[in-house]
Specification:
With 368 residues, the protein is mainly beta. The chain folds into three domains: 136 residues, Immunoglobulin-like (Sandwich); 92 residues, Immunoglobulin-like (Sandwich); 89 residues, Jelly Rolls (Sandwich), CATH 2.60.120.1300. It is 2% helix and 46% strand. The protein has one helix and 26 strands. It has a five-stranded antiparallel beta sheet with strand order 1-2-3-8-5.
């Protein structure tokens, strides 16, 4: 996670043709050296667009950094090339600079390591203006090393990144300050609620490399955490997210390309004698009901009735089985009541209930 460090800004030259800001950021790679750092360079054309950017970096800094500096540039069709002591950002080869002006350029450098110069000197040159009047605007910066007196948060991460509903969060961040005070934690759920509280020391542990905080709040929704550290007049923030695995979904439109299991383990009742007084309590879930009337020489009959509170007329299905079994399958909504009527000649039925989405959602027969 990138912190929000203090920004350093220097204005140079008579009348600003553009504004150049340099932000120091925490290193993004988990294996970065202890004195590694990143830079976010922002160039805004106050009067004229930016057409190119060159960042001069001390040779000692690049030598200690070793591998090529990791770079990201915000401008479309721009690339970044690394020279011996500089990084150059501009339109991709084959696309003339004059045809690709941008109002704002953000160049992020990551993995820099302090050299023998402390603080290292950084020179940023922006090429601005129209094709007929291009101008170079140069700014010089001193990139300060981290200080024990400056707030800092590196690698603010959850462990694990996802929990089951009702689980709790464990948060870690690199220990850059021996002092555990000055931290404020905020929880933000995807329902729009926010809660802020100070870290409770009994739930905060530390070792040589990191702080670990075990939050005691139960998580029921996807939750973002924001950690704020204040030291003197300096304040930094970092954020992370924990996903909550939840089996309860509200879906407006669902398209599935794999296997989706909705129907739970069926409930089976066999050779059940039914009368006009036989009824079941309200269905605990939506489901499918299969009723089979067993055959008998006496030609038994029965009518299955599904009464839904929101529907005026009940759903009925008449079964007759003089020589062969008779079956019917009905859709039953949650809260509907199943009963029988017009039962004749002592009918016996086999009933199979398939609840949808509710494990153990069985039908319960009322006493007659």
């Amino acid at each position: 996670m990138t912190t929000e460090p203090e920004k350093t800004r220097t204005d140079a030259g008579p009348g600003p043709r553009c504004a150049v800001d340099v932000y120091r950021t925490a290193p993004q790679h988990p294996d970065a050296a202890d004195d590694a750092f990143g830079l976010l360079i922002t160039v805004e054309g106050l009067q004229e667009p930016c057409r190119g950017l060159r960042v001069e970096i001390p040779r000692a800094t690049l030598q200690r950094t070793g591998s090529p500096v990791r770079t990201t540039v915000s401008a479309d069709n721009w690339t970044v090339t690394q020279e011996e002591t500089a990084l150059v950002a501009g339109p991709a080869p084959g696309l003339p600079a004059a045809e690709s002006p941008v109002e704002t350029v953000r160049l992020h450098l990551d993995g820099l390591v302090h050299g023998t110069d402390d603080p290292p000197k950084l020179t940023v040159t922006a090429l601005v203006g129209e094709t007929s009047s291009l101008a170079s605007v140069t700014h010089l910066y001193h990139v300060a090393a981290p200080s024990a007196n400056v707030a800092q948060i590196d690698y603010f991460l959850p462990d694990p990144t996802a929990v089951d509903r009702g689980g709790k969060a464990t948060l870690t961040w690199r220990r850059t300050d021996p002092d555990e005070t000055g931290y404020l934690l905020q929880r933000h759920t995807d329902q729009g609620t926010t809660e802020a509280y100070s870290l409770v020391s009994q739930h905060l542990s530390r070792d040589k490399e990191k702080f670990t905080y075990k939050d005691q709040n139960v998580l029921t929704r996807n939750t973002a955490f924001t950690l704020t550290h204040t030291k003197g007049v300096n304040t930094v923030r970092a954020a992370t997210l924990i996903l909550v695995r939840d089996g309860d979904l509200t879906v407006g439109e669902l398209t599935a390309t794999g296997i989706v299991g909705l129907i739970k383990k069926p409930q089976s009742l066999t050779q059940m004698a039914v009368t006009d007084k036989t009824r079941f309590k309200a269905a605990p879930a939506d489901g499918l009901l299969t009723v089979t009337l067993r055959e008998n020489k006496s030609a038994p009959t029965a009518t299955v009735v599904v009464s839904t509170p929101q529907v005026k007329d009940p759903l009925t299905a008449k079964l007759e089985a003089p020589q062969h079994r008779a079956s019917v399958q009905l859709a039953v909504g949650r809260g509907a009541q199943i009963s029988f009527r017009n039962t004749k000649q002592s009918p016996q039925i086999d009933l199979v209930w398939f609840p949808i989405g509710l494990e153990g959602g069985h039908l319960v027969k009322e006493s007659e």
